[in-house]
Amino acid sequence: MSDFTDMTLATARAGLAAKKFSAVELTQAHVTAIEQNRGLNAFITETPEKALQMAKASDERLARGEGGVLEGLPIAIKDLFCTKDILTTAASHILDGFKPPYESTITQKLWDAGANCLGKLNLDEFAMGSSNVTSHYGPVINPWTKAGENRQLVPGGSSGGSAASVAARLALAATGTDTGGSIRQPAGFCGIVGLKPTYGRCSRWGVVAFASSLDQAGPMTRTVEDAAIMLGVMAGHDPKDSTSAPMAVPDFKAALTGDIRGLRVGIPKEYRVDGMPAEIEALWQQGIDWLKQAGATPVEISLPMTKHALPTYYIIAPAEASANLSRYDGVRFGLRVPGASLDEMYENTRAAGFGAEVKRRVLIGAYVLSAGYYDAYYLKAQRLRTLIAQDFEQAFQTCDVILTPTAPSAAFAIGEKMDDPLAMYLNDVFTVPVNLAGLPGMSIPAGLSADGLPLGLQIIGRAFDEETMIRVAGVLETAAGFTAKPGRA
Amino acid sequence: MFSSDVPMREETLIDGRTGKWEIIIGLEVHAQVTTLSKLFSGAATAFGAEPNTQVSPVDAGFPGMLPVINEIAVEKAVKTGLGLNAVINQVSVFDRKNYFYADLPSGYQISQYTQPIVGKGRMVLDMADGSTREVGVTRLHLEQDAGKSLHDQHKTLTFVDLNRAGVPLMEIVSEPDMRTAEEAGAYLKKLRSILRYLGTCDGNMEEGSMRCDCNVSVRRPGEPLGTRNEIKNVNSIRFVMQAIEIEARRQIEILEDGGTIKQETRLFDPNRGETRAMRSKEEAHDYRYFPDPDLLPLVLDPAMIERVKASMPELPDAKKARFIADFKLSPYDAGVLVAEQSTAHFFEQVAKGRDAKLAANWVTGDLFGALNKLGLGIEASPISADALGGLIDLIADNTISGKIAKDVFAAMLETGKSAGDIVESQGLRQVTDTGAIEKSIDEILAAHTDEVSEYRSGKDKLFGFFVGQVMKATAGKANPAMLNELLRKKLAP
Amino acid sequence: MSLDKATVARIATLARIKVPEADLEALGHELNQILHWVEQLDQVDTTGVEPMTSVAAMTLPLRADQVTDGNRADDILKNAPNGMHGFFTVPKVVE
User: Fold this and answer.
1) Which of A299, A321, A477, B435 lies at a C-alpha separation of 20 to 30 Å from B462?
2) Are B137 and B84 in contact (CB under 8 A)?
3) Do B296 and A242 touch (CB under 8 A)?
4) Looking at the domain assignment, is residue A97 inside a domain?
């Protein structure tokens, strides 16, 4: 029944508890949907047998009156999370054949909570990108199309497969990771909810590292409530991750009180960028009005360092990535291209194994860290990062959350913006500052463009205050009443 | 590149063909910290395991793996810093040192660059002539060890074992204050001794738990510093001393021939007695150090530092000074006894309530000699400290002579019995009864009247003959001092 | 800062990525574009600003010194492209 694929985590879980259907039925419906929608190329590895096996075990637990928070719910995993004995590729040729002998902390938590694994989702190679066109396994197709057109659009990135699969009803939810916007921006482009928690809220152990001081995992779902439920399972201190925050996990679902009276919503004037499409500006204003109607007070704030955030990010992230990706060398796992010497083997393997965008970033990273340039680039960027974080600290003295558009445009066509890496980087202009400051941010679908494509609004919260952010998101979600569905689903 | 304020000493200079040269020596020691698990993972560190059996996915640089620091490695680094009279830096930072090699799985080593855990310190070297020299320590930092590459197992392949990858190392850098190979040897000896006293490293150079990189340059006295070469991974103190001399000579020869010294990294080949430039390190590395974003700054708890301070044992220098003051030992004897903590402990037990000089002689002479022959350390000595003390007691109260004591000692080694038991069972008690000795003397003199006449007419050397005869007659048990006195009296005309 | 072909080649060697001679110029051009763009940061006055050491406002957590891992050579070697006799193997290195 396609009713199954239209459920949410919350409604499906309630249905299972009330014995209205079985986990096997629920999961089978999704397995079928995946088979029928391979044209979207959302999955790198489908795991239908495993999913059904897990569903059967879930049914047994449910029959005994047991069952975790996500018991029997079919979800899919961005192929950046190491899943034990299941091919994990980071969408890169260099990880051909890699089956990790360990499970990431986050996916283990999800399985422990009873979720069923539908498979591994496509992404930009090593999470580097905002369009999912850099994957070795080919681009993901956005299930949305412009009105009256059939051109294939990007789902956004890097969690393109995650966003597309949730939007296309191939999974009830998916995991994503966000380093510069990779959960929020594709969520915006695909009309779903994407939540990046505070840095340190979720464990990075077992997540293929891109930029260690920026990476965070988070839920991608169709409702704010679902995001809250899933975050509750994913979050928590992990002693195996030295950057994991020793903070208790609050009941995020309980934050959805619907009451935001007296809350101050910051509107950063620097986010009104040149050339921003009028309809995005209008949607932003609409968002402000919705919140006002709900009793919140909009407050103009200033984040003067905003325009420096992208270049700061594009020094720090590649620098960290250049070191994080040194381990992909053909020695212990993945692709090996032979060479006459050790160095030749390294050079051949990495040249063949990495795509163009990854190579660019690794080289930029090596350069900005190299002798003579460290101070001018890396150290400078880290000072700017301090200033960017201070901007937010300052702003949060006069507001409780910040509201911005998620992206400066709706989804664009596959093939656009390919000539100029910089044009691609600008997709993240609204999301990147949040990663630099380590704050939580989430995108919710707020409206449609004139072309019928989803547009998202971003809410940014104080560090470790996902609850207030979720509460505001819930109110916006109710006000926006976004029920549109993509054509390709 | 580094400056050294140590004033020139004429006696350290060596002769080249065209004049005198000064050798500037700095040592970098990599000391494996004695811990159960690795610096950033929970894999074991024990030596000699089957390949790749002491490897965590973290050590193997697998995707998504993250480091978590070992608290004992941190404490032992602090303890070592305190033992080197060094500054403990409350805040230190771990950096990634980036380079590619088969035994470095992540493609970077986690080390400390600009902010190490320990800063400047110093050490006192004990020289062979009894003098001491102070040498500065620049810093100590924590870092990961690399795995092992085996190049000789296969014709075309190098085999890689990652058991050692991630083992905690303390890199201890000296100031370039040393001027002779002898000083370098003394530095390593003392450092090793301190590390063993503290229990922070076992100092076992053969097993590789302590390795030394030697930085050597030469200059004519008074001139600026020359270009240094680094000789890597020398694994014995003897080789370090050899390598330094050979390298210094090599550089002097080049310079005297009008050449210049290329900055190179070298290996010491003890079989050929030469240093050789390493091919893979010919170009200067750009390590692109930056703070490791998987690790936050290390902030030491002041309470921990205090606790470590309070747990410090008496170190060799202090113990040596105490042995000299309390036991009135010579600096040389004291130095020998404190080199190993277990030896010093053994000695103190023996010396308690006894003649310290006698105890020192027996420990460093006969006992050391026996242990060397048996290939045993003092912890495994077949003769315990109490047993040795028992032997010394029998000398002190004149039960046996020093000479007989040596035989008793040998018997103690063989049988494991106490000195007292052996003396009794073999009837070795010294004869101190003057009557008995006199009787023996009378008998001997009566039996050798010719020799007596010869002695009395001037052949003094015959005294030894008579002593020997009396000793033979008494089975060596006559008290030598008494024998001498009585014999002289009786031989007097 | 503009990268010339020689610098691009040097960085490619540092990063152990083979870049064919014919591609050096185009790659240099792409990298220069990005570098010139990020160089706008030079305009910002950052005197007296400390570089960020960590977004997480915490210090390094310590782990007890116990053996909790290892003894799984099979897992460690199972993805190796050319494992042999319990070792990883690479083309022979001459030192």
Assistant:
1) B435
2) yes
3) yes
4) yes
Q: What is the ipTM of this complex?
A: 0.96
> pLDDT tens-digit profile of A79-120?
999 999 999 999 999 999 999 999 999 999 999 999 999 999
Provide the residue ranges of all domains of chain C, joining segments of one domain with +: 5-43
Identify any residues that bridge with B27 across adjacent strands, giving them in sequence order: B214
Domains and CATH numbers, chain B: 10-307 (no CATH), 314-426 (no CATH), 434-491 (1.10.10.410)
Partner residue facing C65 (CB), from B53, B71, B291: B71
CA distance C62 to chain B (A): 5
Residue A344's domain comprises 306-383
Query: Which among A104, A204, A366 has the least Cβ separation from residue B288?
Result: A366
The pLDDT, as a whole number, for residue B147 is 97
A236, A326: one domain: no
CB atoms within 10 A of CB C21: 8
Q: Of A460, A431, A445, A457, nearest to A223 (Cα)? A: A445
Of A383, A402, A433, which one is at a domain's C-terminal end?
A383
Whether A212 is catalytic is no
Strand partners, B160: B149, C88
From chain B, pick out residues whose CB is under 8 angstroms from the CB of A370: 286, 288
| Same domain as A184, residue A72 | yes
Contacts of residue B149 in chain C, CB cutoff 8 Å?
93
Catalytic: which of A22, A130, A182, A409?
A182
In total, how many domains does chain A have? Answer: 2
Q: Give, rounded to a whole angstrom, the gap between the first and last alpha carbons of chain C.
A: 36
Which chains reach chain C with 3 or more Cβ–Cβ distances below 8 angstroms? A, B
The answer to whether residue A78 is catalytic is: yes
Q: What is the pTM of this model?
A: 0.92
Q: Do B157 and C90 touch (CB under 8 A)?
A: yes
Is residue A22 part of the annotated active site? The answer reads: no
Residue A194: alpha-carbon gap to chain centroid = 6
List the CATH number of the domain containing A229.
3.90.1300.10
Residues of A in contact with C78 (CB under 8 A): 99, 101
Taking only the tens of pLDDT, chain A with its 489 residues reads: 469 999 999 999 999 999 999 999 999 999 999 999 999 999 999 999 999 999 999 999 999 999 999 999 999 999 999 999 999 999 999 999 999 999 999 999 999 999 999 999 999 999 999 999 999 999 999 999 999 999 999 999 999 999 999 999 999 999 999 999 999 999 999 999 999 999 999 999 999 999 999 999 999 999 999 999 999 999 999 999 999 999 999 999 999 999 999 999 999 999 998 888 999 999 999 999 999 999 999 999 999 999 999 999 999 999 999 999 999 999 999 999 999 999 999 999 999 999 999 999 999 999 999 988 999 999 999 999 999 999 999 999 999 999 999 999 999 999 887 777 777 788 899 999 999 999 999 999 999 999 999 999 999 999 999 999 999 999 999 999 999 999 865
Q: Could you say which of B60, B158, B293 has the minimum Cβ distance to residue A212? A: B293
Average pLDDT, chain A: 96
Contact between chains at B68 and A98 (C-beta distance less than 8 A): no
Contacts of C50 in chain A (CB under 8 A): 383, 386
Both tokens assigned to A431: 């999301």
Measured CA to CA, the distance from residue A482 to residue A191 in angstroms comes to 8
Residues of A in contact with B68 (CB under 8 A): 239-242
- Sheet architecture: strand order including A401-405: A43-46, A116-121, A74-78, A173-178, A216-221, A193-196, A441-448, A454-461, A401-405, A264-268, A297-301
* A408 token code pair: 């400066």
Query: Following CA atoms B353, B357, B363, B364 in sequence, which dihedral angle do they give, to the nearest 10 degrees?
Result: 160
Is B290 within 8 Å of A242 when comparing Cβ atoms?
A: no
Q: How many contacts, defined by CB atoms under 8 Å, are there between A and C? A: 162
Same domain, A183 and A34: yes
- For residues A251 and A311, membership in a common domain is answered with no
